[in-house]
């Protein structure tokens, strides 16, 4: 798996497939690009698929002080420049969606299309941001086992598949406490993307697991109502990590969208 050094971060990424069109997959918190393995396997038969890990998560090092959406979007742009990719279909799940909003604000010309999955447009409340700071401190003090105990039940549907639960715990365990803390601090600082919705002019798909408790279907409906022409796909039998809990339906929805985009 290649790594590129960008402004002091050794950014680890996957670059798979050789199609004429590129797809960028942006992962959720507190996981890493490996969460997209099933989508990479399917999409890379027809597209070039690029999947970075954010600093301090997966194999990208070191953790930033705060992994802001601005920082990650800048790193993604630099990575795409390094790979000589000029236009890309962007799919972001949850934190990946927050990054995708920032990437759109920075470089709308990059986008062939946008898939916003299990995410929300709004910023944190003051209480939500304070909760993230408490979580960040606890992550440092108690480690990744604690992080998994806190997060995994929220990331999955109420009665999750034990094998999926195990896989998600494993993905969480491949981060670092400092990376988890930095991502929480970065998300706490993210701006409200609600005003961004009306500026999005590329083809847009909104995807949500019907049992997503973290960014529920009502959030997806708000995004779909705010982006002109956006289509909403509801994924049955899935919570927040819809790509892992209902991979066939999720991959079909994303694949159909991406395949239909102009190159
Ligand atoms: C995620 O899945 O990326 C996070 O739960 C998003 C968040 O904490 O807001």
In short:
This protein is 44% helix and 17% strand. With 263 residues, the protein is of the alpha/beta class. The chain is globular and about 50 Å long.
Q: Your description of this structure?
A:
The protein is α/β, with parallel strands linked by helices. It has one domain (3-259): Rossmann fold (3-Layer(aba) Sandwich), CATH 3.40.50.1820. 44% of the residues lie in helices and 17% in strands. It has helices at residues 37-43, 69-82, 95-106, 126-142, 144-155, 162-173, 177-188, 194-197, 217-226, 242-245, 247-259, and strands at 3-6, 9-16, 22-26, 48-52, 88-93, 111-117, 204-209, 231-235. The protein is globular, with a radius of gyration of 17 Å. The structure holds D-malate. D-malate binds at residues 28-29, 94-95, 187, 214, 240.
Question: Layout of helices and strands, plus pairs?
Answer:
Layout: E1 3-6, E2 9-16, E3 22-26, H1 37-43, E4 48-52, H2 69-82, E5 88-93, H3 95-106, E6 111-117, H4 126-142, H5 144-155, H6 162-173, H7 177-188, H8 194-197, E7 204-209, H9 217-226, E8 231-235, H10 242-245, H11 247-259
Helix pairs in contact: 1-11, 2-3, 4-5, 4-7, 5-6
The chain binds D-malate (MLT).
The site of D-malate has 7 residues, from loops.
CATH architecture: 3-Layer(aba) Sandwich
Helix-strand sequence = EEEHEHEHEHHHHHEHEHH
- Mean pLDDT over the full residue set: 97
Provide a count of the helices.
Answer: 11
Shape: globular
Count of folded domains: 1
Instruction: Provide the CATH superfamily.
Output: Alpha/Beta hydrolase fold, catalytic domain
Helix content: 40-55%
Ligands, deduplicated: D-malate
Helix/strand class: alpha/beta
Question: Any idea of the CATH topology?
Answer: Rossmann fold
The N- and C-terminal alpha carbons lie at a distance of: 26 Å
Share of β-strand residues: 15-25%
Radius of gyration: 17 Å
In the CATH hierarchy, what is the class? Alpha Beta
The largest sheet, given as strand count, sense and whether it forms a barrel, is: 8 strands, mixed
Poorly predicted parts = none
Number of strands: 8
Question: Which strand order spans the largest sheet, edge to edge or round the barrel?
Answer: 1-2-4-3-5-6-7-8
